[in-house]
Amino acid sequence: GLRNSLIVSTTAAAVTTVLALLGAYAIASLRFPARRAVFTSVMLIYMLPGIALLVPLVAIFRNMLLIDTLPGMVLGHMALILPLVTWLLVSAFEGVEPEMEQAARIDGAGRFEALRRVVIPLTVPSIATTAVFAFVLSWNELLVSRVLYVSATPMLAPSIVNLMDPINRVEPQLSAAGLIASVPVLILALVMQRYLIRGIGEGAVI
């Protein structure tokens, strides 16, 4: 469960951050029809109960043979955390002065190059903060991890919940499991603390 959670959370956080970065940049910087409707839809999707998204996801994953697989677990976690990460990065990109990107465009930079050379360097703390946030959300995800698991992909959070037996008291095992589950998050927070402090100060996490 610990190994699977590390693989799924790291992959989901990395891929979600990249996809959210591109989507948030488009919403924040590009002018296209229904732009505001797209942004509103992103927020509404995040506000939906997880079970409302999980029911159709399970049906889709069953048809694609992704139930009880690590790729399916990664996609399930991404489906839940992508809207929130996108919404957070939209706020970060909207804080970048448009004149700086326009100056890069005037100097001959394309849209993607301006994003890579101007926007991303200015928002690194916010991007790092949301990436850590995405990892923590995936790491603590219980509903998807429990529903998509059959026998081959045990995850850490459901494994810990299984120890919570009101009849057979297993406090030592439960305490040890809780400590083990805390270690990766604490290590990540210590490694990324410089970016986290700057990112929170710049409003990446509300």
3D architecture notes:
With 206 residues, the chain is mainly α. The protein is built from 11 helices and no strands. The protein is globular and about 70 Å long. The two termini are 31 Å apart. 32% of the residues are buried. The model has no long low-confidence stretch (mean pLDDT 85).
Short structural description:
This protein has 206 residues and is mostly helical. Helices cover 78% and strands 0% of the residues. It is globular.
Topology:
Blueprint: H1 2-29, H2 35-47, H3 50-63, H4 70-94, H5 98-106, H6 111-122, H7 124-140, H8 143-147, H9 156-162, H10 171-191, H11 193-201
Number of strands: 0
Shape: globular
Topology as H/E string? HHHHHHHHHHH
Uncertain stretches:
none
Helical coverage, percent range = over 70%
Helix count equals 11
Backbone structural class: mainly alpha
The major pleated sheet works out as: none
In angstroms, what is the radius of gyration?
A: 19 Å
- The percent range for strand residues is under 5%
The pLDDT mean sits at: 85
**Ends apart, CA distance between termini:** 31 Å
